[in-house]
From TrEMBL:
ATP binds at K37. PANTHER family: CCR4-NOT TRANSCRIPTIONAL COMPLEX SUBUNIT CAF120-RELATED (PTHR48011), MITOGEN-ACTIVATED PROTEIN KINASE KINASE KINASE 19-RELATED (PTHR48011:SF18). GO terms for molecular function: ATP binding; protein serine/threonine kinase activity. The lineage of its organism: Eukaryota, Viridiplantae, Streptophyta, Embryophyta, Tracheophyta. Belongs to the protein kinase superfamily. It comes from the Eukaryota. This is Protein kinase domain-containing protein. Residues 3-273 form the Protein kinase domain. Keywords: ATP-binding, Kinase, Nucleotide-binding, Serine/threonine-protein kinase, Transferase. CDD domains: STKc_MAPKKK.
Length: 372
């Protein structure tokens, strides 16, 4: 692809970001303006990893799009590796929050949180963990109303994969930004989808207060911050200005036990995000592969029972897969307690048999009716 490097618009520890314009000879499908992330080709392992992750993820409207990569020789013979990305004219959400000098409104927080969760649900469904969710990695696109997308997948990893600092499997490491790290990441170097959800909670607190979730002074002493995160039951302070739904949403993000923490998919159904849901958001959710569990129509009675079990699990805050059968039995037991207008005795007897913890003998064909 023929392109022209423009002015610098950002830089990090290992890469620099410039504006990039497509040359006239480029296919018409290329965007007129892109962001190109570049680094020394000899030190490009992280940037190449980001390119591979974005390629494997594919397109989602809530993730910054990648247009490809190239290697160029700059003036002086320096060889650079370049990745072409969707350009976010609004900068990062951290920049936006800083420039306005005040916290976001709850409506804005809900809208941004929903967008980030839709992106995370897509990432997690593809078997990846972002590992560095923070406001600096959420980019703002002002066109047609402000929307945000997840960026910077340089630290992303496969779910279930443990990597050491030299990249070999089986080791441990710390990765990401301490202010957003989850307890299991601090204590066990565990980076799985629940750690992204914890980081999202920290981002929501920052949007609501204008300050980091653990306080403005926490960054000055990383060791003390790790102790606060990893030891005891302390969680980031829940902003008083949030609605009760917002506070409950954050409590679901900040469950210290990652097994009890709500998933991105569950949080998308939380009442906090449902307050101002619009058709366009539902369309984007479908594009990202988000499944509308609670609103799906059942196609058989087993689907219906499964949906009710999921709803019960959401409301209790416990979604352990091993408890699904207990939840189902409990639900059927509740049905047995209902007053049934017609033929109640036989129906309740039958439901009572089905709700028992003993295994039913399905080989006994007596009493079965053949249907077509």
């Amino acid at each position: 692809m023929d392109w022209v490097r423009g002015r610098e618009i950002g830089h990090g520890g290992f890469a620099t970001v410039h504006l990039a314009g497509a040359a006239e000879t480029c296919p018409s499908g290329r965007p007129p303006v892109m962001a190109v992330k570049s680094c020394d080709a000899a030190l490009s392992s992280s940037l190449r990893h980001e390119r591979r992750v974005l390629s494997e993820l594919g397109h989602c409207p809530r993730i910054v799009r990648c247009y490809g990569d190239s290697v160029t020789t700059e003036r002086g013979g320096e060889e650079l590796y370049n990745v072409f990305l969707e350009y976010a004219a609004g900068g990062s959400l951290a920049d936006s929050l800083k420039s306005r000098g005040k916290p976001l409104s709850e409506a804005e927080i809900r809208r941004h949180a929903r967008s980030i969760l839709e992106g995370l649900e897509f990432v997690h469904s593809k078997g990846f963990v972002h590992c560095d969710i923070k406001l600096q990695n959420i980019l703002v696109f002002p066109r047609g109303g402000e929307e945000v997308k997840i960026a910077d997948f340089g630290l992303a990893k496969r779910a279930g994969e443990r990597l050491s600092k030299d990249g070999k499997q089986g080791g441990v490491e710390w990765r990401g930004t301490p202010m957003y790290m989850a307890p299991e990441s601090v204590n066990c170097s565990e980076y799985e989808p629940p750690s992204d959800v914890w980081a999202l909670g920290c981002a929501v607190v920052e949007m609501a207060t204008g300050r980091p979730a653990w306080g403005s002074q926490a960054e000055s002493n990383a060791y003390a911050l790790m102790i606060r995160i990893g030891v005891g039951e302390e969680i980031p302070e829940i902003p008083e200005g949030l609605s009760e739904q917002g506070k409950d949403f954050l409590m679901k993000c900040f469950a210290k036990n990652p097994k009890k923490r709500w998933t991105a998919r569950m949080l998308l159904k939380h009442p906090f995000l449902a307050l101002d849901c619009v058709d366009n958001d539902e369309e984007v959710a479908r594009d990202c592969g988000v499944v509308e569990l609670a609103d799906s129509s059942p196609r058989c009675h087993f689907d219906w029972v499964s949906m009710q079990c999921s709803r019960t699990s959401w409301e209790s805050g416990s979604l352990s897969p091993c408890s699904e059968m207990d939840s189902a039995l409990s639900f059927v037991g509740e049905l047995a307690a209902l007053e049934i207008a017609s033929d109640s005795s036989s129906v309740m007897d039958r439901i009572g048999q089905l709700a028992s913890h003993g295994r039913h003998n399905w080989d006994d064909s007596e009493g079965w009716v053949t249907v077509r």
